[in-house]
Amino acid sequence: MENNLPSTEYKYGFHDEDVSVYNTGKGLNEEIVALISKKKNEPDWMLQFRLKAYRKFKEMPIQNWGPNVQDIDFDDYTYYIKPSDKQEKDWNDVPETIKDTFDKLGIPEAEQKFLAGVSTQYESEVVYHNMLKEVEEKGVIFLDTDSALREHPDLFKKYFGTIVSYADNKFAALNSAVWSGGSFIYVPKGVHLEKPLQSYFRINSERMGQFERTLIIVDEGADVHYVEGCTAPSYSKDSLHAAVVEIFVHKNAKCRYSTVQNWSSNILNLVTKRAICYENATMEWIDGNIGSQITMKYPACVLAGEYAKGITVSIAVAGENQIQDAGAKMIHLAPHTTSSIISKSVSRNGGKVNYRGLVSHNEKASYAKSKVECDTLILDKQSTSDTVPTNIMKNATSQIEHEATVSKISEDQLFYLMSRGLTKESATQMIVMGFLEPFTRELPMEYAVELNQLLKLDMSGSIG
Amino acid sequence: MAQLEIKDLHVSVENKEIHALMGPNGNGKSTLLAAIMGNPKYTVTSGSITFEGRDVLSMSVDERSRAGLFLGMQYPQEIAGVTNSDFLRAAINARLDKPMPLFKFIKEMESTIKKLQMKPDLAHRFLNEGFSGGEKKRNEIVQMSMLKPHISMLDEIDSGLDVDALKIVADAINDLQKNQEMSLIIVSHYARFYQLLKPTHAHVLVDGRIVVSSDASLVERIDREGYDWIEKELGIHIEEEKETIKTTVTSLGNCAAKVRKGE
Lengths: 464, 263
Description:
The complex is a heterodimer. Chain A is of the alpha/beta class. Chain A has helices at about 30-40, 45-60, 95-105, 105-115, 135, 145-150, 155-160, 170-180, 410-420, 425-440, 445-460; strands at about 20-25, 80, 115-120, 125-130, 140-145, 185, 195-200, 215-220, 225-230, 240, 245-250, 255-260, 265-275, 280-290, 295, 300-305, 310-320, 325-330, 340-345, 350-360, 370-380, 385-395, 400-405. In chain A, helix 10 (about 425-440) packs antiparallel against helix 11 (about 445-460). Chain B is an alpha/beta fold. Chain B has a single domain (about 1-260), classed as P-loop containing nucleotide triphosphate hydrolases (Rossmann fold, 3-Layer(aba) Sandwich). Chain B is built from nine helices and 13 strands. Chain B has a six-stranded mixed beta sheet with strand order 7-8-9-3-10-11, sandwiched between helices. The chains are: A alpha/beta, B alpha/beta. The interface of A and B includes residues 412 and 424 of A.
């Protein structure tokens, strides 16, 4: 039966001709790290930071838990590619091939509709950067991270690398050594942005690692929603994605970070995402994982101030040859902090999906409260799932609630939907979409629609 | 493992007829309807079911639905995260060459919800999730009204409905039947429901067999006298379902349920 169903060929698996004007070739050493820094005209402190991180990277072992990524050959990747010399501000100046790629992803339309600004990462460098007046007038800084280093050096230096240390883990160290691109956002005190800020990312070169670095600072009482989207063309060779995201949410401020990663099925997606929340601040991670070969991603909230709040709503969908090892971390360091984690996982066609999470209430986190809800849907006998929660409480007044369910598609539900005329395939899709709805409803409308399309595509052929 | 067999059963339903299917609990009424709809829990080992000249048994559940069969279920499923409107739109579009225009769908859904006197937010609520028993039953009729089947099988659709709701549901069924070619097979224990729907035929199913077939007068007699007279007059032993026995596997043997729509 499987053979008669539509193929699951990766929808965004097109790639355009290589337009890069400079690349460092395969492999990594101190000279290449220095060259990257030089090409970017960086200040000396950043060069020293990169070199320090590179040395740490060399000596650190790969973590020995989670999916097996021990066999990565770091010499087999290209660490820096520069696609064109200058950054484009006007859409008309963007090279045609790059535009075509964006057209296929529907970016201009998306922009017209609700975007406050677009920063699109094409390979390692941002080629298109445009901001609406509204955002600029409010004093918001929305730049690619390289430009931010040049244009706002003091602000940059104050925050960069302070919540995700270059020594945090091997992949964070690698990112710190070779990072390029990513988004930099600063929202001044009291500024509320009605519309989300958005950026699309793409990897477009074979065997090329993408190491973007994102830094978001939401000053006191401010409010921002950042949307990051990832689609990548499919290649037969492995590709490495090791990003670092650092977010600072100051007193009474709020930040929401929404992302749906749909990396093609050969990509190793090893990402470190961490936010720190000060007094009465709120951080929300809306985190979707559909693609990649292996994903390891556990967005974290460090709740450092009283009444700070952390929320993660995430989904992970693993198909054939995929391992999604995803979850969340909530580190409570202050009294009356609260957190909630909602995780929805789906495995099918032999895929493996794990929830790996940490909730930690330390001695000072009196009256802290956490709620964790993990639900898993396993679609067939070949697919598997594990839930690996770690809950730590070091005081007597806080509380952690943990609920977990694992289920399969119910025959009765299938019969009910099919008895109304839906095919088995679309009935299954509908049940899965319904299962993931607590996530999709959190996304901006256009993203929800796109995600549903991706999932439908991803689900095709899942019944056998 | 209890096994219930339906055998030697011949039912023919012509256009616009309304058949009352009666009998004590546990004697095969729901099983028969579920098997006609194609519930995978039941195996049809022999016999035939034809609908408008087509072999129903060779069709999948969804094909049966698209061909014009409908089963209003005794225990409708809850599907979290799927709104009634998304579900119904998909179900309607599954039987159309071109999708129904959104505006037309919304209008139709609104008027159907109104007819069944359900809350306007029904369209945006998740399919049966958190619905009361009565709401679920009414929602089955909302679906039926919008899918416009040729043969509608209603399995204890009246249970859980109060007197007012019973009237609303019966009106909706009668309305639909008036406006289009639809036949009905109705399983109910209550004469009141049958009085509202006015069946043209009635059958009593005992131990998987139809033991009596007649017109609507049969419904009244059963309402008055129960099933005891069948035991006495026809010499048939009737066994009521015991609560502890769950029917897990049922085969439908020697069955010839002929469901036909007139030209």
